[in-house]
């Protein structure tokens, strides 16, 4: 007859089993690459994009800038993407209803810009009231399409999104540029949050379509946050260069916003890899931002040698950043190098085309560059999760 297991042995066995990773029992390893995480990232990306493009379009319209039309075209291109996603989920008729309210929201914001420029306070108040009504209407439309989406919570978030956009524009129009860029960042973050919230409700509404996966994992959150930070870097980098090119009074504040984005990316590195790695990243990242500015200065001065020198230093940065990344994470060296180089190419294209007045090319580079950096965030976040599965 076998002796019963002693209590001490049972305790030791439990401790050992608890320490083993879930994969030891056949459970899947954590990953950012699930259908639900894909939707969360995509929804956050396109909604966040809407916020910054709206900020830019409102500034350009107020200034009657020569690129105002292309800024608006880029905002409309983003609207096309959002409406297409609604169509894919709910059909063309639903997408048309959604697009009507979405376009009205943008038109009302532009009415607010025009009223501000005309110093017509009554028209400003009318546009503000109509925006509040639009938020309520859009929340109802989306709740009707998806009962899993809480209407009151959505309406509250849409109102906050609009408030940040108006704060950003009011700050810009009044010359309070610090306020303008702080509110622009908040609008971006809040609108990305709305996108992620909508993705969560869609996955709950159509679980089979997303293979029963969920948006609510630490890995999915990391993927969104990394893409969000890198995407914002692209938009701010190009906007800062436009402001420097035009000697705009808000250049220092736009640059400060870019620096805050760098600080946030550095904090992520500190959390993942420690203070030493964070310091190295910060130095390298600021180097490539300085390269862009050196390239712009040389362009404005007609200094071809200076342009080539800035590009050469940027190429060296790409090589060093790639080495920094592949030495810490399970990444393909060639693909990582190409992704880093492509980011630089997008920004350089945006600088050159803006200087030459080819604004269609400028905003195409902006949009492609923004989306590309979210793709880079996808790859980096998956590598982090593979490297540190215990944290996810």
TrEMBL record:
Keywords: Signal
Secretion signal span: 1-24
Highest taxon in the source lineage: Bacteria
Protein name: Copper amine oxidase
Species of origin: Saccharibacillus alkalitolerans
Phylogenetic placement of the source organism: Bacteria, Bacillati, Bacillota, Bacilli, Bacillales
């Amino acid at each position: 007859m076998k002796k019963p297991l002693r209590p001490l042995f049972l305790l030791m066995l439990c401790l050992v089993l608890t320490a083993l990773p879930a994969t030891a029992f056949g459970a899947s390893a954590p990953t950012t690459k699930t259908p639900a995480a894909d939707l969360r990232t995509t929804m956050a990306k396109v909604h966040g994009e809407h916020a910054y493009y709206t900020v830019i379009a409102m500034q350009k319209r107020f200034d009657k800038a020569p690129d105002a039309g292309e800024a608006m075209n880029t905002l409309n291109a983003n609207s096309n993407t959002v409406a297409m996603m609604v169509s894919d989920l709910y059909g063309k008729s639903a997408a048309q209803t959604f697009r009507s309210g979405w376009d009205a929201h943008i038109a009302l914001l532009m009415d607010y810009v025009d009223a501000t420029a005309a110093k017509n306070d009554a028209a400003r108040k009318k546009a503000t009231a109509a925006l509040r009504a639009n938020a309520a209407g859009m929340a109802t439309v989306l709740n009707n399409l998806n009962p899993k989406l809480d209407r009151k919570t959505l309406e509250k978030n849409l109102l906050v999104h609009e408030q940040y956009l108006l704060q950003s524009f009011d700050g810009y129009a009044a010359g309070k540029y610090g306020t303008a860029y702080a509110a622009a960042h908040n609008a971006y973050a809040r609108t990305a949050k709305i996108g992620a919230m909508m993705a969560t409700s869609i996955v709950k509404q159509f679980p089979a379509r997303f293979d029963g996966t969920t948006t609510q994992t630490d890995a999915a959150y990391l993927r969104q946050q990394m893409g969000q930070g890198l995407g914002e870097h692209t938009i701010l980098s190009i906007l800062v260069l436009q402001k420097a090119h035009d000697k705009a009074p808000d250049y220092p504040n736009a640059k400060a916003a870019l620096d805050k984005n760098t600080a946030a990316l550095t904090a992520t590195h500190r959390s993942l890899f420690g203070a030493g790695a964070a310091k190295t990243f910060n130095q390298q990242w600021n180097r490539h931002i300085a390269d862009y500015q050196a390239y712009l200065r040389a362009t404005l001065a007609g200094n071809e040698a200076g342009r080539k020198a800035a590009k050469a230093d940027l190429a060296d940065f790409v090589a060093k950043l790639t080495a920094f990344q592949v030495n810490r994470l399970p990444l393909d060296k060639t693909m990582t190098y190409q992704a880093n180089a492509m980011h630089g190419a997008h920004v350089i294209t945006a600088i050159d085309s803006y200087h030459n007045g080819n604004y269609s090319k400028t905003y195409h580079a902006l949009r492609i560059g923004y989306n590309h950096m979210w793709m880079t965030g996808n790859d980096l976040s998956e590598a982090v999760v593979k490297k540190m599965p215990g944290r996810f």
